[in-house]
Specification:
Elements lengths: L3 E3 L2 E3 L2 H4 L24 H21 L12 H4 L4 H25 L8 H16 L8 H13 L24 H4 L8 H14 L3 H28 L6 H9 L2 H9 L4 H16 L6 H11 L7 H11 L3 H23 L5 H11 L7 H11 L7 H25 L4 H16 L11 H7 L5 H25 L2 H43 L5
Antiparallel strand pairs: 1-2
Helix pairs in contact: 2-4, 2-5, 4-10, 5-11, 6-8, 6-9, 8-9, 8-13, 8-15, 9-10, 9-12, 9-20, 10-20, 11-21, 12-13, 13-14, 13-15, 14-18, 17-18, 17-22, 18-19, 19-20, 20-21, 21-22
Length: 524
C-alpha cells in the first residue's frame, strides 16, 4: 500500500485511521470507500452558533470592562471569588468547546459563501463581546499602555526608560503597578511603533487605550484568519473554512488575545503572512516578515533558521538566491531602521531582550529547578536549567533545519514543531497566552493532526488561569507551601499535553512498524 505523508499524518494507512475517526476525520482521503460526513443541518448550526454568542455575551456582562476600566482587578476579584461564578465559567467553557466542535465538523466541505450568515454574525458578536470584557487574567495591556505612553507622550524609549520615572505625575503609570513599573519593556522596538498610535489616540484615558489594543488584536486576528484560509485552500480547500474558524473561535485566542489584548496575536500576524508568502511562492518576503515578528517580540527568532534554509533550498538558481538574499537584506535593514526610530539604541534592545527570558516560573523547567531544591537533590542554578533547555531546543532546531534542507515544503510543519518544543522545554517563564503562538500554525496545517495538541493546550492553559486565581485565594500556604501550589498549576496545564504528545509519538512509531511489516517481501 502506498502512503502519502502530509502535515504529520499518514494517509491511506488503516493502522493510522483506526481509533482516530473522532478527530474530525483528519485522516480521511478521497479514495476511501466510507461516505463523507454530512454537514450539520442549518437549525443545528444556528443552535450551536447561538450557544457561542450567548456564552460570549454572558462573559462580557459578567466581567464588564468599561465600569471597571480604572481599576486593576482579575477574574476572581470581579466576582468576589464566588465558586458559583467559577462553576458558571467552567460550564460556559465546556459549552463553548462542544458548540464550536459541532460547528467546525459541519463546516467541512463548506465555503464561506454558503455559510456567510452564521459565520459572520457569530464572529462579529463574539469578538465585540470579548472587546467589551475586562482583561481578567493579566494586567499586561495596562502595562503596554503605560510603557507606550513613554514614547507617545514623552518621547522616551520604553526599552530604556521605566514607567516609575513618571509615577507621581502621569495618570497612566500607576496602572503598571509597583511590581512592573520598575521594569523595562521586554518587547521589540517595532512593537513600540505599533503601540504608540494607540496610546496617542487614547489621550489621558487609559480605558480608551485598552480598547485600542483590543481592537488591534481583533484586526490582527481577522487578518490571520484570512491568511490561514488561503494557505489551507491552496492544498485542501474542503478544510479552509474549518481552519480559519478553528483560529477565530479558539477560546484562548479570544480570552487572552482579544479580551486580555495580549500582543501575541499581533506577533503571529507577520509569521502567518510569511507562511502565506511561502505557500504562494513569494520567497523574497518570507525572511523580512519573520524579522518583523522578531522586532515585535523576540521569541520568533527560533523560526528564522528554518526559513533561511527552506528559502535557500527552494531558490535553486544561484542568481535567484542572490536576488532573494539582497531583497531580504534590504527589507530587514529598512525594518530595523523604522523599528528603532528615533533612538537607535542597540544596547537598550539587548537589555530588554535579556529581561524577557531571565525568569524561571510555572513551567516544566521550573519543576526541575524547584524539585531539585525542594528535595535537596542537587544545587542547580536557574541559568544552568535555562542553558540545558536552550541546548535541547537548539538540537531540535538543527533537526528541523535538516528536514527543511531535504524537504523545504515542510517549513510550516517545522515552524509548529520547533515552537511546540520551545514552549514545552525552553519557555521557562511560561504564560497561558503563549499558547496563542501554536494555534494559527496548527490551523494552517489542517488536515494534519497538530491542531489536537494546540487545542488541548489552549483548554488546559485556560484552566491553569482559573487555578492560579482561585487556588491563590483558598490555598493554605503555611500547610502546603508555594511549591505544591505551582506544581498543581503546572500539572493542570502541561500533563495532558505531554500525555497526548507521548501517545501520538507512540502511535506513529507503531504505525510505521506495522507499515514496514506489511511492506516486507519474504526472501524466495
Amino acid at each position: 500500500m502506498s502512503t502519502n505523508r502530509a502535515g504529520g499524518c499518514t494517509y491511506g494507512s488503516p493502522q493510522i485511521d483506526r481509533g482516530r475517526r473522532f478527530y474530525l476525520d483528519t485522516c480521511q482521503t478521497k479514495t476511501e470507500s466510507r461516505p463523507e460526513a454530512r454537514g450539520t443541518k442549518q437549525p443545528r448550526r444556528w443552535w450551536h452558533g447561538a450557544c457561542l454568542m450567548t456564552v460570549s455575551i454572558l462573559w462580557a456582562v459578567h466581567y464588564p470592562f468599561w465600569p471597571n476600566r480604572d481599576e486593576l482587578l482579575d477574574q476572581g476579584k470581579l466576582v468576589d471569588y464566588s465558586w458559583l461564578a467559577f462553576a458558571a465559567w467552567f460550564f460556559g467553557l465546556a459549552l463553548w468547546l462542544w458548540s464550536a466542535w459541532n460547528l467546525l465538523r459541519g463546516f467541512r466541505h463548506q465555503s464561506i459563501r454558503g455559510s456567510w450568515k452564521i459565520v459572520y454574525l457569530t464572529t462579529i458578536v463574539i469578538h465585540v463581546s470579548f472587546v467589551a470584557m475586562y482583561p481578567t487574567n493579566a494586567i499586561d495591556v495596562y502595562i503596554y499602555s503605560a510603557r507606550s505612553r513613554l514614547l507617545s507622550h514623552y518621547g522616551q524609549n520604553p526599552n530604556d526608560v521605566r514607567p516609575d520615572v513618571y509615577w507621581d505625575t502621569d495618570p497612566y503609570m500607576r496602572f503598571a503597578s509597583r511590581e512592573w513599573a520598575d521594569n523595562l519593556s521586554p518587547y521589540g522596538p517595532l512593537w513600540n511603533q505599533i503601540a504608540a498610535p494607540v496610546t496617542w489616540l487614547g489621550g489621558d484615558s487609559i480605558g480608551l487605550a485598552v480598547i485600542g489594543f483590543k481592537l488591534l488584536s481583533v484586526v490582527s486576528a481577522l487578518a490571520i484568519a484570512w491568511f490561514i484560509h488561503d494557505i489551507v485552500k491552496s492544498n485542501s480547500p474542503e478544510w479552509a473554512l474549518v481552519a480559519a474558524l478553528a483560529w477565530l473561535w479558539n477560546p484562548l485566542v479570544l480570552w487572552d488575545g482579544v479580551a486580555n489584548a495580549h500582543n501575541d496575536v499581533t506577533l503571529m500576524l507577520p509569521v502567518m503572512a510569511a507562511l502565506w508568502a511561502w505557500r504562494r511562492g513569494h520567497e523574497r518576503w518570507v525572511i523580512p516578515l519573520l524579522v518583523a515578528s522578531i522586532l515585535i517580540k523576540y521569541v520568533t527568532v527560533i523560526l528564522l533558521p528554518l526559513a533561511i534554509v527552506a528559502v535557500w533550498r527552494r531558490a535553486h538558481n544561484p542568481m535567484r538566491r542572490l536576488g532573494v538574499a539582497l531583497w531580504s537584506m534590504g527589507c530587514v535593514l529598512l525594518l530595523i531602521a523604522a523599528g528603532m526610530y528615533p533612538f537607535y539604541d542597540l544596547e537598550a534592545v539587548w537589555r530588554s531582550a535579556q529581561e524577557q527570558g531571565a525568569k524561571v516560573n510555572a513551567s516544566p523547567a521550573w519543576v526541575v529547578l524547584a524539585s531539585l531544591a525542594e528535595w535537596s537533590v542537587a544545587d542547580v542554578s536557574a541559568e544552568e536549567v535555562r542553558n540545558a533547555a536552550y541546548l535541547i531546543v537548539a538540537i531540535g532546531i538543527a533537526i528541523w533545519m535538516a528536514v527543511c534542507w531535504t524537504h523545504p515544503q515542510r517549513l510550516a510543519l517545522a515552524c509548529f514543531e520547533v515552537t511546540f518544543l520551545f514552549m514545552l522545554v525552553a519557555s521557562t517563564n511560561q504564560r497561558a497566552w503563549y499558547v496563542i503562538w501554536l494555534v494559527p500554525l496548527a490551523a494552517a496545517l489542517l488536515p494534519g493532526t497538530q491542531w489536537r495538541r494546540a487545542t488541548l493546550w489552549s483548554v488546559t492553559a485556560m484552566l491553569g488561569h482559573a487555578c492560579t486565581i482561585w487556588l491563590w485565594y483558598v490555598w493554605d500556604f503555611d500547610a502546603w507551601g508555594y511549591y505544591w501550589y505551582v506544581m498543581v498549576i503546572v500539572g493542570v496545564v502541561f500533563l495532558p499535553v505531554i500525555a497526548l504528545t507521548v501517545w501520538e509519538v507512540a502511535a506513529r512509531a507503531r504505525s510505521r512498524g506495522d507499515a514496514l511489516k506489511a511492506n516486507k517481501v519474504p526472501c524466495e
